[in-house]
Design brief:
This protein is α+β, with helices and mostly antiparallel strands. The protein is 45% helix and 15% strand. The chain folds into 3 domains: 150 residues, Chitinase A, domain 3 (Roll); 192 residues, no CATH class; 105 residues, Roll (Chitinase A, domain 3), CATH 3.10.50. It is built from 19 helices and 13 strands. The protein starts with a strand and ends in a 7-residue tail after the last helix.
Length: 507
Amino acid sequence: MSENINNDNLPVASETIDNSRQEVVMELEDRSGVPEKSSGKKRKSGLALVILGIIVVLLAVVATIFYDAGGKEKLESPLTIHGKSISSADFSFMYHYTMIEEGIDLFASDTPALLDSPYTDDDKYSSYRNYFLDLTAQKMQEVEILYDDAVANGYSIENKHFERAEAYISWLKSQADKLGVSLDTYIKGVYGSQVDEQTVLKYLAKKYFADDYSNGAKLDILSASEEQALEAYENDRNSYDLVDYKILRITYEQREQAFVDTANLHAQQIIEAMGGDPSKFESSAAKYFSGTAKEQLEIPDSTLVANCRFSDFTHSDFRDWLFGVDRNPGDATVFSDRDGFPIILVFVQRQKLSQHLRDVYIAHIVSVADEEGNKSINTTQSLAQEIYEYIDDADSFSEAENLYNTDVLEGRLIITHSQMTYPEQYNENISNWIFDASRELGNKTIIEIDGDFFVIYFVKESEKTEWYDRVNSFVRMNNYREFMEAKSEEYTYEFDENGLSAIRDVP
């Protein structure tokens, strides 16, 4: 079998192949560099900040208007969910909280015009205002569904949820202090005249409780049965398997056709000599080489590339052949580079992802360069040290995200909860620390990489192997989606125009 590849590079397994291994050729060639990648569930960064100068003017005016207008009167509910009236204060808080989270600068001069303008992404909404009102209702609907379900299953709000909310309020107070106004004045100026500290505290605690339940206990309840897991695995084995293979490229400095023909003849002879036994591949090939190449081929498994994921390959032809459903150990084929020289692939084995994943929190403190491109390492390290000292459990990370919300919004701090961390996911130094055999709950560290600092907190090692965890994640998220869709039909919501009239876009 022979196919043409219009690329001189060997396949790059971007996360699992040892970058230092050299390609075996008549004259050894370096393999392509492997970029490091990282992933996880990251909080949005770069959200627009409230313009402080305008707030100073508006807050005092708002407070006066509120009290002069008899703000102590009970306002009509703007929203009903599942027959329950949502208070004007709760809705006003979440409406503005949602807009800020979505990057809207409430006090920008063009914000009223933006909210009045047509929402072009979905014909369902006549304006951005209607879109954000409905988005707020959806978020509050989700909180009600999850809160009720959690309580029905025996869970309740804990102190940690109030502590996280208090951390957010502490950040709000720091913003108020910068302006020289009280916390209450600041809250009313940003979230609405009917909102106070207790509104923020109680609703955020409820929201955090619902979030934790949806990401933890509820997913455990909806975990895949053994039958579901096996069915999902068989339906998409490429997502849950690893392959080991051997690769050898034969080339000459001369590019004449005679040399190309000779190289291809040797490739076929090597495959025949191997006789379907991958362990004999290097020794079968060594006789056609000399010097350094021959010495390397005399080392067993020197051409082996192990533990490759389907997503690792840049050459789809290599990937599709290796992950073919009818592939057996010892199968071999020849691809051709753009000059016609052979690249031999030998299939060694295919197995399920067997690593035990890790659950970690990571705070990435990004070094910021000045106008001349110089990075302030001391400032970045100081922030990393503050966060390191503050962290004493997993919940501390959520609190830190609120306490250092300005750094989050400005992109200097990225908090990640990586619940399914695998060895090649992060930089080698980070990975080595996470996967150290002695690692246990509560371990934490600071690692510096190119001027950026990473505060890492270790939670646990999964009891299951990676293939099951990934299958289970897929299945239970499907189960969760079905649960939420069914509950959404039960927990319908309806706006009340009279109540909405008290909700101001810019408080």
